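Tutorial, part two.
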Amino acid sequence: MAALLFSCSRPKEAGPDDVVTEISGASAHWVSSDRLIWDSGEFGYRHEIRYSADADIVVDEEGVSGGEVIEVGSEVSAGSEIRDRYPHLSDRPVRRVGADKPIVKEALKGQLVAVAYDPNDKPVAATRVQFPGVIDEHYFYDGELGPIYDGDNITLKLWAPTAQSVRLNIYDAGEDRLEQLEPVNDQHPEDGVWHFRGDREEWDRKYYRFDISVYHHDNQKVNHYEVTDPYSVSLTTDSRFSQFVNLDDEDLKPNCWGRLKKSLPHPSDITLYEAHVRDFSMEDQTVPEEYRGKYMAFTHNGVGDRPLSDGMAHLRRLSDAGLTHLHLLPVNDIASVIEDTTRRIDLHHPYDRICEFFDHPELNQLCDEHGSRSIREVFGEMAEEDPATELIQKPYSVPGRMEGMAARDGFNWGYDPFHFNVPQGSYATDPDGTARILELRHMVQSLAQIGLNVVVDVVYNHTFASGPESRFSVLDKVVPGYYHRYDVDTGEMETSTCCENTAAEHGMMEKLIIDSVVLWARNYKIDSFRFDLMGHHPKSVMERLKEELAGLTLEDDGVDGENIYIYGEGWNFGEVADDRIFVQATQFNMGGTGIGNFNDRSRDAIRGGNFTDHGRSQGFTSGMYLFPNEDAYSEQEDNLASLLEAGDRIRVGMAGNLSTYPYLNRDGDRVDGGNEMIGFALNPQESVNYIDKHDNETLWDNTQVKLPLDMGMSDRVRVHMLSNAFINYGQGVPFYQMGTDILRSKSLDRNSFDSGDWYNAVDFSLDSHKWGKGLPPAWDNEPRWDQMRDFLRNPVFDVQKELMDLAHQLFREQLRIRYSSPLFRLREAEQVHKRVAFLNTGPEQEPGIIAMAISDGQCAGEPLDPELDGILVIFNADNEYRTISLEREGVSWEGLQLHPIQADGVDPVVKESERDGNNFRIPPHTSAVFVKPQADGQGTFICNE
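Running the prediction step on this input gives:
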C-alpha cells in the first residue's frame, strides 16, 4: 500500500459529543482508484476506507472494528477531470487513496465504510462509500451480455463485478431445477463478467436464473439469492425465470419478416399518434375475444384475407390521411400487471370475484349485492343510473390503490420497467415464453402493411423496485449500489421520477440503455423511441445513442437508422436539475441534436392548465387562447395581457418553437423565439408539438369544464378541432393522443395510469363514449369530485356518435392539408426564418386572431411546392365572426382561395370564410387555410422581414 500522507494543518481534538458510534449516510465517494471525495468534518485528521467481504465492520461505543484498512491520505487538488465529472461534488475535499488494483477490486466485493479520526484516533465520522466511479474505472465492459448464440453453443454473460460468487441454475418448463453450473472463466473475473457456456441443443428454450452471493448495503449483509438476467430476451409468466432464446430463430418471425424494410420519413415529415396496446382493442367487438388487449389485435388490418377490425380501420383512415407513426406506451416487460390471468380481476369477471381477493366492508357489501353478474355489466348500470357515481371507482381506490382492483386487473400504463429487453407478456396470447416475441413482431409487420411506423415508449430513468428482498428488483440485486442514483450525503435512493432513479451517468447504465434500444430497433424493427423523463439522462448519452442507431442500415439490419426519431420529456427537475450532476437532455440543452422535446409552451397557451390543478379559474391561463374568460377580448388589462402572451407562445410554437425565430412580440419588440424562455429548438424536428397525451385530463375533458356551460355541443367540437389545428398546421412534429380525433374522454380522470379498462379503453365503433362513466378513482381526482359531479351530471355534455364521426373526419382533413404541401413541414431553421411570417402581431394586434403565412414565392428562394406560391392560415378563437385586415406593403392577396380540401370538406362553416381585397372574414372557432396556386411559374408571396 501507499504510505499515508497527513495534512499540514492539525485539526483540534474532538470532544465526547463529537465521537461517532454508528455508520451514518453515504457521503464518501470513491471516484477513482486513488481519489476519494469526502468532507469528513472539522475534526477529521486521519482517514481510511474499511472493506469487509464478511460485512463485519462495526462502529460503536467501543470504536471501529472489522474489515481491512485502505489508507486515505492528504487532501489533493481535484483536477479538471474530476471536477467536470462530478460538478455536484466539486466543492468537497478530494483525498488521495493508497491502494493498488488488486486491493481495490477485493474491496468492491464487500462492505465499504469510510472512517475519519481525530488526532487522538477517536472516530469522528463514519459513512458508507459510494463507488460507481471506481467501478467504471476498473470494470467497464463493452462486449455482449446476456445469452449469445454461436453455432452449436450458447454463451451466457453476466456483468456482476461486486458479486462474491455467481452460479447458473437451469430449469425445465415445470420450474424444476435441472442443474447448477459454475462459471467457465475465473471465479473472480478480471472484467467483472461471469461466463457460462453450454450446448445449444441442451440449453435452447430452457429457463434459467443466476445464483448470486453479493453484499447489499440495504440490509448490510452478504445476500444469497436467485435473480433473472438483466439482459433477458425472453421470460416465463410473470417474469419468474429468464429463457434461452435466439431472436434470429425462424419460428419467431412472421412470414416475410425478413423482407420488411422500412424507408423512414425525415423527422419533419412525422406525425405521432399515441396509443396503448390494451386501450386500442379491449372494447373492439370486431376483434376475437382472445386477441382483445393484445398485440395480435393489430393483425386484423384487412390485408389479404385478414378481417378488418374497427380499430385498424380507424388507423388505416388516419394513415391514408398522412399519419406516419403509432406511438405505443411501454411494451417492454413491466412489473405492475399480473400476467397469470387466474390471479387477475378484469371487467368480464363476476363482481364478487373482487371480494375473493380483498376483504373490506364497503367492497363486501357491493359483492353481496351484485354477486355473479359481470363487473362490466354492473358498472354500466351504475353509470346509467348516475354518471357521477362513486361506486365504480371504489374497487380501484378503496381501501387503497395497491390493495384494490387496480392492483389485480390487467391494466397499467406500464411506466414501471422490470426487464428492459423483453416484450410485456400480458399483451401476448400466452405470457409463458416466446409467444410475446412472435406476436409483437406480427403487430409491427401488420402496422407497416397499412403504412404506419412504430414508436415505443421507453423508461430507462427508473426501475420499479430495488433492494435484496424485492422480487421486482433485477439491476440492484446484480450490482447493488451501482445502477441507481443516491443522495450524495444520506445515500438514500433518489426517487424524483416516481420510483428508483437510475443513473445513466454511470458507464454500464449508459451501455444498457444503448444496447437495449439498438436491440429493439434491430430485432423488432422499431422506428422511433420516446424517452420518459429524458431530462434525467445526460445529453451525451442521448447523442451517443443517436449515433449508434444511425449505424443501422436497411441492407444489413432492415432498419433505416439515420431516420429513427428520438424524442422525449426534457423536463428539468429533481436531483439532476439545472445540470447539477451532468449536462442534461433537457429542452434548452438539446437544440441542434436533432432529438425532439415535448413543447409545453404552446401546449399551455392553447389548452391551458389542467382542470384538476386549477379548476375553472385559469391562473396563468386566464388568457388561454381558445376559451378565455368571457371578457378577455375587452380592454381589461389582465385578461388582454394574458391573451396576447398566449398568442406569442402559439406563434413561436407554430414556427417550430425555434429559439432563433425572429418575430414582433405583443410589446412591439423585435425578439427571437428564445425570448421569455419560449423557444428551445434549433431545428423544427426538435419540437414535438402537442396539447394532448396520456398524462393529465384528455383534451376533450379539460376543455369542456372551462367552456361556458351554455355552449352547444357543435361549438364545443369546433373548439376542440381548432385546438388540434394549431398543432396540425404548425412547423415541427405533431403529436396526438389516440382518440383525440373522436373526442376522447376518460370521465375527467386526471391520472388514469392505473384506472383500468373502464376509464381508458377506446370504442372505435363510436357507439359509446367515456364521458359520464362515474367519478374517476380517488388518488388524483378526489379534491375536484364536487365539481366533477356537476359536470358529469350536466345533460349539456351529450356526446353523440355523429359528433365523434364529424371530429374524426375534420381531423383527417387537417392531416390531409398538412400533407398536401411540404410548406407545412419545413426541415431547416433557415427555411422557417424566411418563409414563415405572422401578421396581426405587436401591441396593436386584433386579439384572438392568429394569421400565419408560409411562402413559396420568389422571395423564399427555390420553390418547395411546384403547385403553390404560398399558404395563409387564419385562426379565429373568438365565438363571433371576425373580420381582419391583413395589409402589408408590397403584398397582394389576389388569387388566394380556400384550400380545396376545406372547400370540398365536411365543415360547412369554414366554407363561409371570405376574402375581400386585404380583408378576411373568418367564422367563429375556425381555422381557415387559404392557398395561392402558382400561375406561370413562381410568383410572389409574403416572406418574413
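The first strand starts at residue 28 and ends at 32. In part three we will examine how such features are distributed along the chain.
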